[in-house]
């Protein structure tokens, strides 16, 4: 223990603990407060007093480091003193080999504490990517753009003629100006729809949608198809086709020219 903390400080610790054997039984957390002065005076300033300043705190091994690291060094030296006291109490190393090893470890820890912090490397900014960027596309994006497109009618509503009063319209209990709606020359162009964004119909159903429908007077109704739009269709066309197919099968089976195919014998 003399190699770790010095002969004078080691002697003070042994006297304060009541012997080397008693010191070896004290944990490291209590060794650092051995010899602490008890301040019982009332009214004195406590700014310069240390709470856990004992014999180890005022030793030469602790006083050589800056004040900011002294509390940490007290804990480290107290731990090494506890180990060294147990080695000395058992008389395991009379040549002081353990003490020299503990001393070297403390010196390495002191150097680690006092070394300067590594400087952060200044990384250069990346080269800006000024090339062409990929833009998202597809049917959903085209539909979103078409839904947000400003129509010609909306553009006319936002325009005003100099020196003329604009028409006003009541919308939801609020008065809004109509701008040049109804006063602009020319026709209002309808919104151009993209054919690629329309719903597609399978090829096997196109022949049914494009085929002419036979319409019976008085039985036609209005139908809507995604290909042709509104059209007049006969709702009884399917029933007529089914009845015709059933009649053909009936005539072929019960015709007089059909030969006798035989009779199935029933099982007893």
From TrEMBL:
Residues 1-115 form the Nop domain. It holds the Pfam family Nop. SUPFAM superfamilies: Nop domain. It comes from the Eukaryota. Residues 121-155, 234-268 are annotated as: Disordered. Its main location: nucleus. GO terms for cellular component: precatalytic spliceosome; U4 snRNP; U4/U6 x U5 tri-snRNP complex. Keywords: Nucleus, Ribonucleoprotein. InterPro entries: Nop_C (IPR042239), Nop_dom (IPR002687), Nop_dom_sf (IPR036070), Prp31 (IPR027105), Prp31_C (IPR019175). It is found in: Nucleus. The keyword ATP-binding does not apply. The keyword Ribonucleoprotein applies. One of its GO terms (biological process) is spliceosomal tri-snRNP complex assembly. Residues 133-143 have a biased composition (Basic residues). This is U4/U6-U5 snRNP complex subunit prp31. The lineage of its organism: Eukaryota, Fungi, Fungi incertae sedis, Zoopagomycota, Kickxellomycotina.
């Amino acid at each position: 223990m003399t190699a770790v903390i010095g002969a004078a400080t080691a002697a003070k610790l042994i006297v304060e603990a009541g012997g080397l054997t008693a010191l070896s039984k004290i944990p490291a957390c209590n060794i650092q407060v051995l010899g602490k002065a008890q301040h019982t005076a009332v009214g004195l300033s406590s700014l310069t007093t240390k709470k856990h300043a004992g014999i180890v705190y005022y030793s030469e091994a602790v006083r050589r480091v800056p004040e900011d690291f002294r509390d940490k060094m007290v804990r480290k030296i107290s731990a090494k003193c506890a180990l060294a006291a147990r080695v000395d109490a058992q008389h395991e190393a009379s040549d002081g080999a353990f003490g020299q090893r503990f001393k070297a470890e403390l010196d390495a820890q002191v150097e680690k504490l006092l070394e300067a912090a590594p400087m952060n490397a200044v990384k250069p900014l990346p080269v800006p990517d000024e090339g062409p960027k990929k833009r998202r596309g597809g049917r959903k994006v085209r539909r979103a753009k078409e839904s947000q497109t400003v129509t010609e009618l909306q553009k006319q509503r936002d325009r005003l003629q100099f020196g003329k009063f604009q028409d006003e319209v009541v919308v939801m209990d609020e008065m809004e100006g109509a701008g040049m709606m109804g006063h602009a020359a020319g026709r209002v162009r309808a919104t151009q729809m993209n054919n690629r964004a329309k719903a597609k119909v399978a090829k096997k159903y196109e022949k049914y949608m494009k085929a002419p429908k036979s319409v019976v007077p008085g039985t036609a109704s209005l139908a809507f198809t995604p290909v042709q739009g509104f059209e007049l269709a006969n709702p009884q066309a399917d029933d007529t086709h089914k009845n015709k197919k059933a009649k053909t099968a009936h005539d072929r089976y019960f015709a007089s020219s059909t030969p006798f195919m035989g009779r199935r014998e029933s099982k007893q």
